[in-house]
Amino acid sequence: MLNKLWGFMILAGILYAVFTGHVGDVGTAALDSSKEAVTLCITMLGIMSMWTGLMNIAKKAGIIDALTRALRPVLAFLFPDVPKDHKANEYMAANIISNVLGLGWAATPAGLRAMEELKKLNHGSHIASTDMCTFLILNISSLQLIPVNIIAYRSQYGSASPTSIIGMGLVATALSTAAGILFAVMARTIAKHRKKKKESPV
Description:
79% of the residues lie in helices and 0% in strands. The protein has helices at residues 2-20, 23-60, 63-78, 87-100, 104-121, 130-141, 148-156, 166-199.
């Protein structure tokens, strides 16, 4: 779907440039953007390598394990149907920690593994379970203490103060996470109520 959307936008832009006589500008912009994309990738590669390395050091030092244990009460509240010692909890905790530190790219592998484990608990059904939906909402709304990616983008494009986004980013993601958790809890409560209603004798 996204490929079709982007394809439509690109085609619409080219057609508009043709009819307005700006085809040359489109070609120039495409070349300049290609160069910027490569430069940005190199910048982000360095930043992500540094933070991923720090995450590995934290893992070996036991910091990640300690944070995972600290998150267990939160995970038990949000995912009551997931067994306490199930592997999904470990992957979900790693994903949450990475997102909180602003390492969205580093969080992705743990998030995918968590979804695989949650799918196993859902008996391989093609319909997402409540736990899978809750995890997705939590992942998307993710609280971020240090938005590393955004700081890197702002630095790359010449921002005078790349880190000035931290305060507002923290407020915005705190609100989005609170809203996501509230919605997930309400959805779980409604789902349980409907299930009880179906199971109760008429």
